Amino acid sequence: MNGCPGAAGIKGAPTLKIKTCPECGGEIEIFSVDTQAACPNCGFIAYNDAMSCISWCKYARECVGDVMYERFMGIL
């Protein structure tokens, strides 16, 4: 599982990505370990694109671990 390109942004030290809110144009800060983040201006919910492989990959739980998998899938 070390070679999975989708897991590179999820595992290890968290990284920060700035997204532009489609509702108000504000900045949304979303960390690589977050599944979603709200716009501080209008409350619009943005989702973490880097984590999308977790929703369909049959090796996701094994790759990212139980806690991250369950957080993303809404189990926790």
Outline the structure in words:
With 76 residues, the protein is an alpha+beta fold. It has one domain. The protein contains two helices and four strands, in the order ββββαα. Strands 1-2 form a two-stranded antiparallel sheet. Strands 3-4 form a two-stranded antiparallel sheet. β1 and β2 form a beta hairpin. The model has no long low-confidence stretch (mean pLDDT 80).
Identify the overall geometry: elongated
* Secondary-structure element order, N to C: EEEEHH
Strand order of the largest sheet: 1-2
Largest sheet: 2 strands, antiparallel
Query: How far apart are the first and last residues' alpha carbons, in Å?
Result: 23 Å
Number of helices: 2
Write the layout of secondary structure elements.
Elements: E1 16-20, E2 27-31, E3 36-38, E4 45-47, H1 60-64, H2 66-72
Antiparallel strand pairs: 1-2, 3-4
Keywords:
single chain; 76 residues; alpha+beta; two-stranded antiparallel sheet; 2 helices; 4 strands; 16% helix; elongated
Summarize the structure.
The protein is of the alpha+beta class and 76 residues long. It has two helices and four strands.
